[in-house]
Amino acid sequence: MNKPVAREPLNLLWLQSGGCGGCTLSLLNADCRNLFDTLAGFGIRLLWHPALSEASADEALRIIDDCASGATRLDILCLEGAVLRGPHGSGGFHRDNHESMMARVERLARVARHTVAIGSCAAFGGITAAGHNPTDACGLQFDGDAHGGLLGDEYRGSGGLPVINIAGCPVHPNWVIETLAILAAGGLDERGLDTFRRPRLYADHLVHHGCTRNEFYEFKASANKPSDLGCLMENLGCKGTQAHADCNIRTWNGEGSCVRGGYACISCTEPGFEEPGHPFSETPKLGGIPIGLPSDMPKAWFVALATLSKSATPKRVKENAQADHQVVAPAVKRTVRK
What is the pLDDT of residue 7? Predict the structure, then answer.
């Protein structure tokens, strides 16, 4: 009987650029006993991570140089944080004594089998690119929602894939773990990525899916202030019906999400979320109708359904929607067929 051939582990190098490091902090809350053992179990060897590895600066530079030269095979390059291209395209806003992070990422991406953007900053520019963007921050293959970024739209790793954008601010830890596991198993191709090259394993859902406030949404029973239990879409800026993510299905730390904690979804997995053009906690309206309607729903349908729903709102739902705790319990009703 032939023994299965042991596969060589995939080498993963993780770099951090212009950002807060929040995606790494989120990753440490992954649903596993030990992050390094979990990656190893999938056949991934972590060569270096700036916050989690014990290697000295000189040792880290040798690892990076060996990857860039081909002395060490680079299977997965992960970048957390936006690329800082300024000033004047030099990358000088983020550099050490050897080179700019921009140049380092460019030469590593040329030899990487797969390149992965960790978080919305690395994917699209994110918070780092907000405002007048003095650092000229951008994503690896997108600048906001425009194709291009640092590497250009035509970039493909040697494995044939474009940059894989695990967008989120921060990312859900299991989005990262699952994407890396699928890459290690050779199970990801371009069909597994959406329009913005986010893994469809989470981007084919909406934050609205699984939201605990969905009954209030269905009856258009809206919250008026953050502590209310009602739907946050109509008055408090929630974009859960438009944001591509499964936050309310898999939840965070097995329990929470933004809307479950009482805060409106700000659509952090989408390019440009950082500058919506209005306060995050407000819903802009035109003629009394929210301008950000649910995905796939024509305006006329929404208006008609909202009017019908509000006219049929049960007293229990209406009263609970504008309270900070349940004040009316569901009625007990037998449904036995006679």
Answer: 76
235: tokens are 């008055």
Helices (H), 144-190: 173-184
Superfamily holding 205-326: Cytochrome-c3 hydrogenase, C-terminal domain (4.10.480.10)
Q: What is the pLDDT of residue 32?
A: 86
DSSP conformational letter for 55:
-
Phi, psi dihedral angles at 287 (to 5 degrees): 65, 30
User: DSSP state, 329?
Assistant: P
Considering the domain delimited by 10-203, tell me its CATH architecture.
Answer: 3-Layer(aba) Sandwich (3.40)
Average pLDDT of the chain, as a whole number? 93
DSSP string, 196-251: T--BHHHHTSBTTTT-TTHHHHHTT-B-SSTT--SBSHHHH---TTT-B--HHHH-
Residue 295: is its pLDDT beyond 90?
no
pLDDT digits (tens, 9 = 90+) for 187-218: 999 999 999 999 999 999 999 999 999 999 99
Bridge partners for 143 per DSSP = 146
**Tens digits of residue pLDDT in 274-286:** 999 999 999 998 8
pLDDT band at 3 (very low <50, low <70, confident <90, very high): low
pLDDT confidence of residue 323:
94
* C-alpha to C-alpha distance for 273 and 270, rounded to whole angstroms: 6
CATH 3.40.50.700 domain extents, the chain: 10-203
Q: Annotate 282-313 with b (16+ C-beta within 10 A) or e (fewer).
A: ebeeeeeebebbbeeeeeeebeeebeeeeeeb
Those residues with Cβ within 8 angstroms of residue 283's Cβ, 6 or more apart along the chain or in another chain: 233, 234, 235, 236, 237, 238, 290, 292
- The whole-number pLDDT of residue 288 equals 80
Domain with CATH 4.10.480.10 in the chain: 205-326
Check residue 176 and give its pLDDT. 97
